[in-house]
Every structure is written in structure tokens, then in C-alpha cells.
Design a protein that fits this description.
Strand content of chain A: 15-25%
Number of strands of chain A: 14
Largest interface: A-B, 23 and 19 residues
InterPro entries (chain A): 2-oxoacid_oxidoreductase (IPR052368), PFOR_II (IPR033412), Pyrv_Fd/Flavodoxin_OxRdtase_N (IPR002880), THDP-binding (IPR029061), Transketo_C/PFOR_II (IPR009014)
Largest sheet of chain B: 6 strands, mixed
Shape of chain B: globular
Protein name (chain A): 2-oxoglutarate oxidoreductase, alpha subunit
Keywords (chain A): Oxidoreductase
CATH class of chain B: Alpha Beta
CATH architecture of chain B: 3-Layer(aba) Sandwich
Number of helices of chain A: 14
Shape of chain A: globular
Distance between the termini of chain B: 26 Å
Order of helices and strands of chain B: EHEEEHEEHHHH
Strand order of the largest sheet of chain A: 3-2-4-5-7-6-12
CATH superfamily of chain B: Pyruvate-ferredoxin oxidoreductase, PFOR, domain III
Strand order of the largest sheet of chain B: 2-3-1-4-5-6
Structural class of chain A: alpha/beta
Number of strands of chain B: 6
CATH topology of the largest domain in chain A: Rossmann fold
GO molecular function (chain A): oxidoreductase activity
CATH architecture of the largest domain in chain A: 3-Layer(aba) Sandwich
CATH topology of chain B: Pyruvate-ferredoxin Oxidoreductase, domain 3
Oligomer: heterodimer
Radius of gyration of chain B: 15 Å
Strand content of chain B: 15-25%
Number of helices of chain B: 6
Helix content of chain B: 25-40%
Helix content of chain A: 40-55%
Keywords (chain B): Oxidoreductase
Number of domains of chain A: 2
Largest sheet of chain A: 7 strands, mixed
Structural class of chain B: alpha/beta
Distance between the termini of chain A: 54 Å
Chain lengths: 360, 181
Amino acid sequence: MADKVLMKGNEVIGEAAVLAGCRYYFGYPITPQSEIPAYLSRRLPEVEGVFLQAESEVAAINMVYGAASAGARVMTSSSSPGVSLKQEGLSYIAGAELPCVVVNVVRGGPGLGNISPAQSDYWQATRGGGHGDYRTLVLAPNSVQEIADMTIAAFELADRFRNPVLLLVDGILGQMMEPVQLPAPLSYDLNQKPWALGNPNRKGGRNLCSTIFLDVEQLEEHNWHLYQKYQVVTDEFAKGAYQHLAVETHAVDDAEIILVGYGIISRILKTVVEKARKRGIKAGLVRPKTLWPFPSQVLADLAARTKQFLVVEMSCGQMVEDVKLAVNGRKPVFFFGRTGGTVPSDFEILNEVDKLVRPD
Amino acid sequence: MGKDVEEIIMAGFGGQGILFLGKILAEVGMAAGRHVSWIPSYGPEMRGGTANCAVVISTAPIASPIVQEPDTLLAMNRPSVARFQPKVKKGGTLIYNSSLIEGETWRDDLQVFAVPASQIADELGNAKVANLVMAGAYVRHCPFLDYQKVLADLPRLIPAKKAEMAEINRAAFVRGYEYQG
């Protein structure tokens, strides 16, 4: 195993993509993720890959559509406003059942917003984002090491389910440096994609990747087929096939209050749990690592044991809806958020915990 | 072993090499076998504006890498003192670039050290190595970093395209370490 190296989250996304066998990247610069295209513009030519700065985010995602149709491992990345622009293409790629990885290093919105870290794209990421009945898998790392591991996992999941996989990273994780152990490179075989336009061994005539079904019965059949695939994804996650990717719990066994947060927030919450326990408050933490499929069962099980939940996000409250669906009214679910690019401090979250646990 | 967790904020003008100073401290902390994190301020800032960077060096895995109350502040210019001195933990350490900072009121619950980093860098012939002077001064006051090991490790941390800067960076680091105010 190679030694750990100190690297920036964004650069690790680039390197891990290369290690996963990605040889095609199409994108357009935007803060706070521009180190991804900068890194790949240097790295991809070294491995005979293609780096292309497209004329826009819309062009980039459609280049991804093309490369994915050909069977290539392909990635694009952007930050919030740019990811909004990609939604049309994402809908097409999901509809055509093509694998690709899309990275969103989230910044403050709506509109141009600002370049500071945020988590306000949760709904867009987990609800499809574009038009039509579709889903994308969403992975949410909370460290630079996990960025490496989840970038690799994203490519494997995308191929496994023939579906776009989103890596949802906030601006801090993209910008921060931590030691990382880069994984071994994966081998990638185009022959495993018999549907791909680029597969030299495809049987019979031509392959076709398309999203147009003018016949209503055909489209309904296609949509139920997609739905069934999403059920398979959900079932496999629920059965623990991807346990290492799904959810992390910390100090929940005796917890009277369970904090719920993902990404960088989950690390602040870990500090809050430590500080709360020093004050005699039995706090615990649930961190969804995969946001879709959401680890509902873990929260549902804990609802039977704990007294209340506090969801913390860098938004006005988006994931809190999924937590409420999982808890399903069995225990109260409260919310604390900061938005606009503000990162909550452990002090202010601890203050919220105090208020909930000791209401007088 | 010294302290379990050390949280450092370094701040100064853009162009003073604040982010690189942070990277060096994170690298040498990592080489000392500790967990580290490095977070830059990445606002819409430019050369001549302000820059700051937060580094955590810890014996245990780092929960929150966000530094609200640093143990140590490395202040390279006056605005950094105004902004970050109030946040330093009681009993913490403040090392400041006395070439550019004077006439400040210092908290009496901190250990405060003056280092004429910019002047030393100028004497060495390159104002840009003031950050390495600060790194040397930091290692002098840090209970868990070994000076000789860091000095031996330093060449690895200078980017290949700036290899010609290795010697002056080393000299700046040594001067910062040896400076006694």
C-alpha cells in the first residue's frame, strides 16, 4: 500500500476518478470545484484520456451522455448553479439508463448565491433534479479519505445499476486537505457493457441509446422498468449490500437525543456529541453516507429507543423531511440550520441540544 | 508527546504564503504521526487582500476540522490580529510578525512572541519567505514537533518547480527557529 499523502478534496476526486478507470472528463470551471478540472487537465493526458473544457455546463453533460453511451467511464463536475444547468442532460442519461458520475461541490444558493459551502442542493440531488420519473444515487462523503473511496464506489455503482451517481460534496470538503490513502487502480472492461455503442463484441446489429417513447404504453412500461430498478437499488441498500457506504452511527445505544447530519456537518456534530456527553447529555449521531437510497430503517429503529432527533444542515431544512418520513411521527424531529454559506459552530448546535434536552 | 490536539490559525495578506505555511505545518504534523487537517479561507480574495488558513494537528482522528478557538495564532499582518486575537484560547500562543505589526494591545492571558519575519526575509533577500520564518518560530514553541526532523523534511515540501527556493526557505526556517526576541 502506498503511503498517505496530503491532498485537497477536489484533487482527490480527480485522482480517484482516474484510478477508477475514468478516461473522459467534460466540464466547465466554477468555484469552489475548479481544482477538479484543473487537476484532470494535467492528469488525464498522462493516461491517454480526454480532458475537455466545454463551452458550457449544458454542453459538458451532453458530452458525458455521448461518452456514457459508448460505454466509457466518464465524469463531469460543477458547483450548484452549474449543476442546475446539467439537469436536463441528467434526466436524459437516467432515462437512457447510462452510467456516469456527476460531482456537485455545493455552494450557497439560490441563483448565483455565493462561493461559500452549503448543503442546499439536497432536494435537487435526491429527488432526481430534472424532469421525469427518475432517481440518481447520491453519495455524501465527510472526509478526504472518504472522497477517494466514494468516488471509486460511484463509478462501480453507476456501472452496476446503469444509472447516474452523484457525489455531493460541500465547499469545505472540496477545499480542505487531509491525509489520504489512494486506493489501487481498478481494471475496467468495456466488454462488460453489452448494451454500449462502443462494445466491439456486441451481438447482432446496432445498439441504440434513446429516451424517446412516443407510444404511451411503451413509455409507461419503460417508466415502470426504471421504477423497478430503483426498487432493486433501494432493496440492496436496505439489505446491507452496501453497508460500508450507507450510514454511520456514533454513540446511539443509550442516546436520548440523536443528531442527524451529513457531509462536513456530521464532523461538527461528532464534536457536539463529545461536548454534550461531557455535560451529561446522552447525545448520539446518525450520519447518512448515502442520501439516496436514504438509510431510513436505521432511523426508524432508533426512533423506538431515543427521545428525540435534531437534524442539522447548511440549508433551511431539506434532509429533515427524509428523517421525518423515516421516523414517521414516532418521536419529535427538530431542525437547526445555517444557510447562505454560513457554517454552524459546535457552540450554537450544542446550545440547541441544551434547549431541547433541558427545556426549562 | 506533548499536546493531544493543536488548532492553529495563520493569517495575513494574500501573497504572504499563508496557505503554504499551513500546508507545511500540516505536512510536518503528519510526518510526526498525527492526524491533520487544513482548511483555507477561499472567499473572493486576491493578492493584497486577506488570507487565512486553519490547521488541526491531533493524536486522535479529527472530528470537526473547523477551528473556532485556536490554540495558536500566527499573525502576519495587523488585520489578522484584530480579527483573530479575540478568538485564541485562554492560555494560548500568539506569534506575530513584528516587522509589520506594532502598537497592538496584547491579551494578558496569552503567551505572545514577536518575530520580525518580514525583516528577516528581506535580509535573506526575498520577502516571500517570511512565511518560513514564521514556520521556524512556530516549531520553536510547539511541544511536539522535533526541529531537526522538520528541518530534514523541509526539502520534500518545496514544490519541484520552486526547487531553487529550497535553500532560502531552509535559511528562513532556521532563522525563525533561532530568533530570540
